[in-house]
Design goal:
This protein is an alpha+beta fold. The protein is built from 19 helices and seven strands. InterPro entries: NTP_transf_5 (IPR039498).
């Protein structure tokens, strides 16, 4: 199985191809059995549901399955999707209320923030918060406001996940968010001071704030990214995770249905070294979800590098990869490292390699020094790395 862009999708399972076909269909889904009858023969519907859950597209998928004749889609499958859809709707309403409360609290303390995902994006991209899943609230603010925002969340009963270890303040660029969890509300909040971890070149927060949009979802003003900034964030986030959940491509499809300013978008992606990652997203979305690409964006989509990166991303769709749930299978981990490096431009590859020379928290654990002497970890880094390799095989 191939397509006009030259992507080979024949390695995808029948159930995965059926899932994609439903997501790509924008008219009458009952036409699918006639146009692609082979996808409905001997379908393993348990696997189909498992894929829908893994890729987190079941709310959107439910609307596609609901009008289907039971000859093609068993009633119990539609009923399962309905139950998942209903549960997600309540979850999104719950998150919407908390999003408004957090946004209001931050505004009262003069903290500018932009919500990156969650209900605000569901409303913007799908027109209905029930059609997209979200498990937490992500927002970005200036690093200068981070401590004040953290204090506010702690006062509201959130607990901080202190998973970040740091030396010489490397957390500011090696990481990009901190996590808080409220056990009573069952809600996780991620405070971002960067869109992505290093090495990445990205718009500064004041620029993002200047181009912000206001959501109509809540009574109190909630702000989120401008369209071109949202495209940059979504493609960088999706690529960083290998597009291992097709929901991220569905987001791109929905965003492309909105009026993007192509020259402005291209300039933004080139400036921040995401041109080919943007092309990868366009190639995947066009190929898998049958999206028509604006003529001004087609050169970005059709470059050989964009197509190669798109083809490589199919590795993740051939299997249910969850990069957030270790242990990751060795072959997946190895492939992911190579693919992530391939995504980088030459200058970002150089910075990535250079970053290994900067001290890691492990260096401080290997040779504890007083904080006043932490600068010595810079020249000692190669020695400490070699020592760990020798005694335990860790870098």
């Amino acid at each position: 199985m191939g397509n006009a862009l030259g992507l080979s999708t024949g390695t995808l399972s029948k159930e995965m191809r059926l899932l994609i076909a439903f997501l790509a269909e924008d008219h009458n889904p009952n036409d699918l059995p006639e146009s692609q009858p082979e996808l409905f023969r001997e379908t393993d519907w348990e696997i189909f549901i498992e894929l829908a859950r893994h890729h987190r597209v079941y709310p959107y998928l439910y609307g596609r399955l609901k009008p289907m004749n039971e000859i093609w889609v068993p009633t119990w499958v539609v009923r399962t999707m309905h139950d998942l859809y209903t549960k997600n709707t309540f979850q999104m309403l719950h998150l919407s209320g908390e999003m408004e409360q957090v946004g209001k609290l931050f505004a009262e303390h003069d903290i500018d923030c932009l919500f990156l995902k969650g209900p605000v994006i569901a409303k913007d991209l799908y027109g209905d918060i029930s059609l997209r899943t979200s498990c937490d609230l992500d927002l970005i603010l200036s690093i200068e406001d981070l401590s004040k925002a953290e204090e506010i969340l702690l006062q509201q009963g959130y607990l901080k996940d202190d998973y970040i270890r740091t030396v010489l303040n490397d957390w500011k660029w090696r990481h990009h968010h901190i996590v808080f969890f409220h056990s009573g509300k069952g809600i996780k909040v991620e405070l971002h001071w960067r869109l992505n971890p290093a090495p990445s070149k990205e718009p500064a927060f004041p620029d993002l704030w200047k181009r912000r949009r206001t959501s109509s979802l809540t009574k109190h003003p909630i702000y989120y990214l401008g369209r071109e900034d949202l495209f940059l964030f979504l493609v960088s986030h999706g690529a960083r995770h290998g597009w291992s959940r097709i929901r991220w491509l569905l987001d791109i499809k929905q965003l492309l249905l909105q009026p993007l300013t192509a020259p402005k978008l291209i300039a933004l992606l080139r400036k921040h070294h995401y041109y080919y990652i943007g092309g990868q997203a366009l190639a995947l979305t066009s190929s898998l979800l049958s999206v028509s690409i604006d003529s001004q964006l087609q050169p970005m989509e059709s470059t050989s590098k964009s197509r190669r990166l798109a083809q490589e991303a199919l590795f993740y769709l051939e299997r249910m990869v969850n990069l957030h749930s270790p242990p990751i299978p060795p072959e997946v981990e190895s492939y992911h490292k190579r693919h992530q490096f391939a995504l980088l431009t030459f200058s970002r590859k150089f910075l990535f390699v250079l970053s290994f020379l900067f001290p890691y928290p492990e260096d401080a654990e290997t040779l504890p020094l007083p904080k006043s002497l932490h600068f010595l970890y810079v020249p000692l880094r190669p020695i400490l790395w070699a020592w760990r390799k020798t005694i335990g095989g860790q870098g």
